[in-house]
Every structure is written in C-alpha cells, then in structure tokens.
Write a structure and sequence with these properties.
By secondary structure, this protein is an alpha/beta fold. The protein folds into 2 domains: about 160 residues, P-loop containing nucleotide triphosphate hydrolases (Rossmann fold, 3-Layer(aba) Sandwich); about 70 residues, no CATH class. Helices cover about 35% and strands about 25% of the residues. The protein contains 10 helices and 10 strands. A hairpin with a 2-residue loop joins β9 and β10. About 40% of the residues are buried.
Length: about 240
C-alpha cells in the first residue's frame, strides 16, 4: 500500500500551468526518485506536496488523508517533512537552535525534543561537534546535514529531499546518500529530487521522469538506468557501469 499517492496534480503560477495532472506514488520503506530537466516542475511538485504552493486540482493522499490545500504546518504534523533546495537554514543561529526550530510542533515537550535532538547527533556525529557553531559558518556538507536533521526532528513518515547534493564535494555526496539509504532501511519513505541522476538511480527503488509538467517515464530505478532515453538525457549517453 502506498504511503503517498498523487493523482491528477495540477499546479500553476498565474495563467501558466506547471503541472498537468501529474500521477505518482511512494510506498513506505522505499526511495522514489523524481528526475527531470531544469524547469520540468520537480521543485514545484515538492512544494505543492508540502503546502508551499496552492494546488489547482487533483489529490495528494498521505495515508488515508487528502492533504492537498492544507497549510504547511498541518502537513508537517501529519508526517511529511521537506528539505528544500539550498537548505534554507537560519544562518545566524547555532546548529542546535536550528534543530530546536525543527521541533516547533513539539516545543512544549522538552524531554521528548531533547531525546530527538540527541538522536540526530547520533545519526550525524559531526553536528554534535558543531552544536554551538552558527549554521552560516558551516561547510556545505555540514549545512546539508543540519537541514536533513532538522526535518527528521518531527519523525516524519515521508521525507522529501530537493537536490541534497547541490554544491557538495563527491566525498560528502557519498556520505549524504549513505544516510538516505540508512533512513530507507529503517522504514522511512523518501521522495528524492536530485541532479546526480546516476547516483540517484543506484540507490532508488523506483523512479519517475517528469518533463514539462507531466510524467514521461516510470518504473524500477534499475530499469530506467538502462533506458536509452534516460541514458541520453541524464546519464551522459551511457548507462552506469
């Protein structure tokens, strides 16, 4: 059974429609990749899921509840966490202050919030070393760790990631992807938009290709990695070795 089921999703800006009846699903415990060229509508899709863009039509079922049109804080409370492109941290605040803000929905539960923050330090040991450092002074990889940890504070059912490897060194990218796989192995559902299509298809269970606001291709990630159209557009003309 799917945890997230999107049917007929339509989103636009003014008179311009960006998504034209998009359909896809994400099951619990799987990584689903959403591939597409710049301007295909990937970020718009994620923002619509998390309540940051108004939905013109269609449904977004999170479990048995249609979250289309709900405000962002209610969607977060229902278990969908969004790590946006370029991380969007509070740069003048410390690592720990950013994590505390991630727990705003449980801010009155002091012991529980502390437990969850400590769990994030266990998952990201580097952040424990940097807990009092200002987020704006961290490296790009450390900032991405904070962004993911902040989203995980609410213990979501679905984690939505928008370009988590952007601007990061290859070694750091591998570490971030290892963490994503570990979260999947713990049963979390993950919807991943990522420019590094080759690496994404290696770790994803299934994938969709979004072009001009519509789903063009879908299937097991390993199969799409061998599709000539995907190879030509996203893998430099050759399948991953």
């Amino acid at each position: 059974m799917s945890l997230l089921t999107v049917e007929g999703l339509r989103v636009g800006y003014g008179k311009v429609e960006v998504l034209h009846g998009t359909n896809f699903r994400v099951a619990a415990g799987e990584i689903v990749a959403l591939l597409g060229s710049n301007g295909a509508g990937k970020t718009t899709t994620l923002r619509a899921l998390s309540g940051l863009e108004p939905v013109r039509g269609g449904s977004i079922m999170l479990g048995d509840q249609n979250i289309a049109g709900l405000p962002a804080h209610k969607i977060a409370a229902l278990g969908l966490a969004h790590v946006p492109e370029r991380r969007r941290l509070f740069a003048p605040l410390s690592v720990e202050e950013n994590l505390r803000l991630g727990g705003y929905l449980i801010r009155g539960q002091h012991a529980e919030l502390k437990r969850r923050i400590e769990a994030m330090y266990a998952l990201f040991p580097r952040l424990l070393e940097r807990r009092q450092q200002l987020a704006g002074t961290l490296s790009g990889g450390e900032q991405q760790m904070v962004a993911i940890a902040r989203a995980l504070i609410l213990e979501p059912r679905l984690l939505v990631l928008d370009e988590p490897s952007m601007g990061l060194a290859p070694l750091v990218v591998r570490a971030i992807f290892t963490i994503i796989q570990r979260l999947r192995d713990q049963g979390m559902a993950i919807l991943l938009v990522e420019q590094n299509a080759r690496q994404t298809l290696k770790i994803a269970d299934r994938a969709y290709v979004l072009e001009s606001g519509s789903i063009l291709l879908e299937g097991p990630a390993a199969d799409l990695a061998q599709d000539p159209r995907v190879q030509s557009a996203y893998l430099g003309g050759a399948a991953a070795a």
